[in-house]
């Protein structure tokens, strides 16, 4: 009979998200993961086969949560435009403890790996596509209730909002606290 696992793989993936988000894929070492997950290197490789396989799991889980957060915030009752503002600001928030510099793991991955890692690029593209779909549905609701200009193509507006949140995430990553994020979002929402 084999030895029982001494850790929960789901918990390990959650911890790995934090490490990859803080350090990036390239700067994260297997030792960083071993220390964060509280397991041995053998257990790391037995459970996940490679650093990249664990990263893919972490990136997928992060993306699922990001899309779920966006959906939940946009499906709350009330007017769409204020919910869009809250949701997009939430997606670019800095760390709750006041630190900045993490941005969005999906955006960070796109800038770090998109040209060299097809798997990561595909996962990120999927996350962005799902986010755009959620945004489009919110725009269509806003158009139906007369809050958003019905002449605007909802898919184009969703793409604009996605591009805005990606740009805001990059600015959040560098710790821009000049109010630029708020100004960007307010200007884009004013065009609706």
Features of this protein?
192 residues; mainly alpha; elongated
How would you briefly describe this protein structure?
The protein is mainly alpha-helical and 192 residues long. The chain has helices at residues 9-23, 30-37, 41-48, 51-75, 80-91, 105-113, 118-144, 154-173, 180-190.
Explain what you see.
With 192 residues, the chain is mainly alpha-helical. It has a domain of 129 residues: Orthogonal Bundle (Tetracycline Repressor, domain 2). 70% of the residues lie in helices and 0% in strands. α4 packs antiparallel against α5. It is elongated.
Task: Give a topology summary.
Elements (H helix, E strand, L loop, with lengths): L8 H15 L6 H8 L3 H8 L2 H25 L4 H12 L13 H9 L4 H27 L9 H20 L6 H11 L2
Helix pairs in contact: 1-2, 1-4, 4-5, 4-7, 5-9, 6-7, 7-8, 8-9
């Amino acid at each position: 009979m084999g030895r029982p696992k001494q850790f929960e793989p789901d918990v390990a993936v959650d911890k790995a998200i934090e490490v990859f988000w803080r350090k990036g894929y390239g700067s994260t070492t297997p030792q960083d993961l071993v220390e964060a997950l509280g397991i041995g290197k053998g257990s790391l490789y037995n459970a996940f086969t490679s650093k990249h396989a664990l990263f893919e799991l972490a990136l997928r889980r992060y993306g699922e949560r990001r899309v779920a957060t966006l959906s939940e915030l946009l499906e709350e009752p009330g007017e769409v435009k204020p919910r869009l503002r809250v949701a997009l600001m939430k997606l670019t928030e800095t760390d709750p403890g006041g630190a900045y510099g993490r941005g969005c793991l999906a955006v960070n991955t796109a800038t770090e790996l998109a040209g060299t890692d097809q798997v990561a690029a595909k996962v990120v593209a999927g996350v962005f596509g799902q986010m755009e779909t959620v945004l489009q549905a919110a725009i269509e609701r806003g158009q139906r209730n007369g809050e958003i200009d019905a002449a605007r193509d909802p898919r184009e507006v969703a793409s604009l909002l996605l591009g805005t949140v990606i740009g805001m995430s990059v600015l959040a990553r560098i710790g821009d606290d000049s109010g630029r994020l708020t100004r960007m979002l307010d200007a884009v929402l004013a065009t609706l």
